[in-house]
Amino acid sequence: MGATRTGRKPPRVGDQPLFRRMLIGIVLVIVALLIVAPLVVISVEAFSKGWAVYRDTIIHPDTLHAIGLTVFAAIVAVPVNTAFGIAAAWSITKFDFWGRRFLLVVIEIPFSVSPIVAGVAYLFVYGLQGVFGPTLDEYGVKILFAIPGIILASMFVTAPFVARELIPLMQAQGRDLEEAATSLGASGWRTFFSVTLPNIKWALLYGVVLCNARVMGEFGAVSVVSGNIRGQTNTLPLHIELLYHDYQAAGAFAAASILALIAVFTIIAKVALERQGAGRVRRPALVANSAEKTQ
Amino acid sequence: MRRNVLPGLRLSLGVTLFYVGLIVVLPLAALVFKAASLGPEDYWRIVSSSRALASYRVTVLSALGATVFNLFFGLALAWVLTRYRFPGWRIVDAMVDLPFALPTAVAGIALTALFTTNGWFGSILADLGIKVAYTPLGIMIAMCFTSLPFIVRTVQPVLEDLDPALEEAAQSLGGSDWQIFRKVILPLLTPALLAGVSLSFARSLGEFGAIIFIAGNQPMSTEITALLVFIRLEEYDYQAAAAIASVLLIAAFVMLALTNWMQSRALRYTVRG
């Protein structure tokens, strides 16, 4: 205690011991009630009917199928989003073109839109009431209430995740290194892999980790487009809802404990990557040309 | 302007525009198109039906309550995490991101378990005569949980970068701590606070997964707008779903514009300061 960053300097505002202790106390109590307690209650409820029920829920074919589908959606959606994030960051930070700031705002849209709205919007593109739905149906292509719909909806909600980590960072790094590499005769790909990528790898991984967590946990958008067919189009979050409404609370919490574990690992990875300098340039920096000022 | 020698504009911009167009713009355009095909009278009748109005009311009021709570608690948490060092502060700092990392459905059933009348907190509150689960208060708590990190994470970097010399100057002029906080520190934090507030409020307006478990979902009292959209879909009333979803979409765009405006203001402020 007492080893504040001010060292031996005079106390700063709010450094009186009584105020300090009270504020820390209040904040810690609320953190415990609002953030820690939900995590604890998941593990307690998951094992409330004993280890056997927990194990039976996890190894039930429907649960295993839901886990498989969730992992599959992530395996497809995360790399595609990563490629998009890199392309968006490269075009926006390495070139000046008309409408660049507008493009930034459009990429951010999925952050503000309710997942339910996203799901409904996809219904009106690929559903039978939608723009392409009837044509696709004629050719026997099924997108909604099937796996492609789940993946598309996941891609919508996570579209900005990688881009928003890369754009402020690459903006701050400027174009000099890439221009030097190109003028020395390196190809575009060579420049990217040898010059740009080493500088952005941690931020890239940071975006990928957050994107993956969101894809695996997405509920609202996926619940609209999936059709909730047990053992077919049920992802893990949807399976939790199904068990919960089936009055199998212990089972629902058992399934939830897997996702909670993924969330905890995500946070550990996030902290580790932040130690490498990722995530330093924070959200407000997505507004164009702001990155220089954040540091 | 300098000539740009870097390659890959056509490829990277092409991929970006194609992806944004296909994944983001096309679906939203289809939704707007569907809602617009209703005609003004039908549209107005659906979006101003008493059930829809009641859902806007409970959604907006709960989101307001949650945002006000997070404004105070988020500021206090950011303050504690940047100004004070105590055992375990790093763990608390990491835990702040849990609401973003934890899937909303998981958060929903966990909060419900805590706040039902036989849950850990619900049973204590029930003795005091307060009912949380299946009431608007429950909706508010779910929104508090899911939008908590926004204000903490927008205020934290500004607090970290705050120049101690400003406080020292104010102290040497004889200002009390409260005066310095109110007249020196708070004005510097305001742009970041406002940006965090608008993000937090926008998120609360659209939240679905965490809420539906704890809300009770009674039409006219605890039915949020996002759920009403979902119910209209399940009734195969696609036009009504499109119309009400478009209201949420318009609200999201207004909040997005507001957030961008506040963030650019916040940045200008930082530069000048």
Would you write up a description of this structure?
The complex is a heterodimer of chains A (about 300) and B (about 270). Chain A is mainly α and about 300 residues long. Chain A folds into two domains: about 1-45; about 50-295, MetI-like fold (Orthogonal Bundle). Chain A is built from 14 helices and no strands. Chain A has helices spanning about 15-45, 50-60, 60-95, 100-110, 115-125, 135-140, 145-160, 160-175, 175-185, 190-215, 220-225, 235-245, 250-275, 290-295. The model of chain A is unreliable at about 285-295 (pLDDT under 50). By secondary structure, chain B is mainly α. Chain B has a single domain, classed as MetI-like fold. Chain B is about 80% helix and about 0% strand. Chain B has 13 helices and no strands. Chain B is globular, with a radius of gyration of 22 Å. Chain B starts with 8 loop residues before the first helix and ends with a helix. The chains are: A mainly alpha (about 300), B mainly alpha (about 270). Chain B: It holds the Pfam family BPD_transp_1. Chain B: This is Sulfate transport system permease protein CysT. Chain B: GO terms for molecular function: ABC-type sulfate transporter activity.
Distance between the termini of chain A: 28 Å
CATH domain fold name of chain B: MetI-like fold
Mean pLDDT of chain A: 88
CATH class of chain B: Mainly Alpha
The helix-strand sequence of chain B is HHHHHHHHHHHHH
Kindly report the oligomeric state of this protein.
heterodimer
Quick one: overall form of chain B?
Answer: globular
Main sheet summary of chain B: none
User: Any idea of the CATH class of the largest domain in chain A?
Assistant: Mainly Alpha
CATH-level-4 superfamily name of the largest domain in chain A: MetI-like
Number of helices of chain A: 14
How far is it from the N-terminal to the C-terminal residue of chain B, by CA?
A: 30 Å
Global structural class of chain A? mainly alpha
CATH architectural name of chain B:
Orthogonal Bundle
Main location (chain B): membrane
Domain ABC transmembrane type-1 (chain B): 56-259
Protein name (chain B): Sulfate transport system permease protein CysT
InterPro entries (chain B): CysT_permease, MetI-like, MetI-like_sf, Sulph_transpt2
